[in-house]
Amino acid sequence: MRLNSWVLIATVVLGGACQSEQQGIATDPPRISQDSLLTLVQSQTFKYFWDGAEPVSGMARERYHFEGDVPDDFDVVTTGGTGFGIMAMLVGIERGFITRQQGFERIDHIVDYLRRADRFHGAWPHWIYGKTGEVKPFSATDDGADIVETGFLVQGLLSARQYFKNGDETEITLAAQIDTLWREVEWSWFTNGTNSLHWHWSPNHGFSFPFGGFDETLIVYVLAASSPTHGITAQVYHTGWARDGAIVYDLEKYGYTIALKHNYAEETTGPLFWSHYSFLGLDPRNLESPYANYWEHNRNHTLINRQHCIENPGEFRGYSDDVWGLTASYSLDFYAAHSPGVDLGVISPTAALSSFPYTPEYSMQALEYFYYELGDRIWGEFGFYDAFSIHHDWYPQKYLAIDQGPIVGMIENHRSGMLWDLFMSAPEVQAGLEKLGFRSF
């Protein structure tokens, strides 16, 4: 039997006794303080990575459904989503959802598993069969390393290294094991002798998809430049990611200016996860590169996305200043990278909630509407479901790891800056940012 959504408020936040579901719990949740609501959302979403983890690896399942048949890939784990999950566990320790010892043991278990799982030149694949540690092909030709998902994983691992490095003997040992994994990733090898990183390498198909431009991949170039053992040159970043300066843009929408050209988004902006994934660890508050001020860019990216939903050119029922947020998520036809240029009437809660650092008042406005007004239609075992559409009367009870993780982490960065402080404290990261011409002040 599923736990009634509102029972959790009493047990986790309010700490009082509560009636059982059979005794007729009210369907409308009681009002609690905004601070308590943030804690509730973090704690419930955290459970995706704690209670919902694949048991052999301890890593994050790619997806989790509470409707229909069990997905065929239910035991497949995601490396990038696990990086986000490790960061969520650090938050869980600090917020008291788990003890420090519990968090240490789970992360230690994951690190031990990662040491034995399939790797290619130090990099992990996108997906792994949780029971065996073997690569699960992401596509017909992507059956090897995924340097972008590896980047998301390493972002979480380095945060954990910084968290445990001054602990007791067992924690120091864990930090050293993480450091070894980090040093073994051959970032420079993934240039394939060019001035660009390549997303995939397959032992059967070789390199594919050189990548750059503004999207979710900035963190990968930063980590590649920061590596103490296999670092890329600054030129790889300036040519590969910044496209020899062609990334500089001056797009104005709804009175907000975007300084970086978004990939695949002519005269508009991309999905909001592009301003989330790299910035779980990278602190954008005072971060400038030769190409942009990232606080201004990411905040304006968010404000344009919200204003598009308010203007609602597609005339979708349910959009408002309370209901906004377009990003990659489940969609009416399985999955889509929703954005102002690809608007299907589908709202993804992670879009507004992971934007808390950039738009705290507007994100809280959305959170309170999602929770109090939409309620059980979009709230379940692991927090808000991945996506919904009021217009299409569509409320799937499904989750994706890469959407749940940023909710926990970015809300915490809004509340305390914890993950930003951890990741940015890594001396290699500071050296890498300096190499690339970033300024953090």
What distinguishing features does this structure have?
single chain; 441 residues; alpha+beta; Glycosyltransferase; 2 domains; three-stranded antiparallel sheet; 41% helix; globular; disordered N terminus
**What would you call the structural class?**
alpha+beta
**What is the topology, as strand order, of the major beta sheet?**
2-3-4
Shape: globular
- The H/E string reads HHEEHHEEEHHEEHHEEEHEEHHEEEHHHE
The CATH architecture assignment of the largest domain turns out to be Alpha/alpha barrel
pLDDT < 50 runs, ≥5 residues: 1-26
Describe the protein.
The chain has 441 residues and is of the alpha+beta class. The chain is built from 14 helices and 16 strands. Helix content is 41%, strand content 12%. The strands form seven sheets. The protein has a three-stranded antiparallel beta sheet with strand order 2-3-4. The chain has a three-stranded antiparallel beta sheet with strand order 5-6-7. Mean pLDDT is 93; it is low at 1-26. Helix 2 (34-50) packs antiparallel against helix 12, helix 5 (147-164) runs antiparallel to helix 6 and helix 7 (218-226) crosses helix 14. It has two domains: 1-30, no CATH class; 31-440, Glycoside hydrolase 144 (GH144) (Glycosyltransferase), CATH 1.50.10.140.
Give a brief rundown of this model.
With 441 residues, the chain is an alpha+beta fold. The protein folds into 2 domains: 1-30, no CATH class; 31-440, Glycosyltransferase (Alpha/alpha barrel), CATH 1.50.10.140.
